[in-house]
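Support request, please re-run this one:
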Amino acid sequence: MDYEKKIKELKINLPEAKLPVGSYVATKIVGNLLYISGQISISENGELIKGKVGKDLSVDDGYKAAKRCGLSIISQAKVACHGDLSKIKSCVKLTGFVNSIDIFTEQPKVINGASDLIASVFGEAGMHTRAAVSTNSLPLGVSVEVDAIFELN
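Re-run finished. Output below.
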């Protein structure tokens, strides 16, 4: 499958891959695995998507925030693969963190935003394992953070 063609078909605009702001790297290749550091929810206009899901944001808002994290994951993967997404063999795992209220239980519905995006771009190769976890806080007050592991050809 031509992933670049699929991105164009889906009318997806990938954001610019952001450089890390701490003592870590955005991506790391170990053997044939590509690890992508957690990508936080940033809107199309570059603003942080902040707040607690279940209080400040609805499940749908959280889904959209997770989708934005997924877009950043693809951007980081593209940079790590020197602009060639055909190097991606499969998505192995996504781990999603949802900044939510204590009684919130719909983390999977929120993280589906990232999962659905990865599956829509990478097709069968985008089917992955996953964890969807609630947390009481995320960096900079963002609503969602998602990291990823990909297998490379």
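Residues 59-80 form the longest helix (22 residues). The mean pLDDT is 97.
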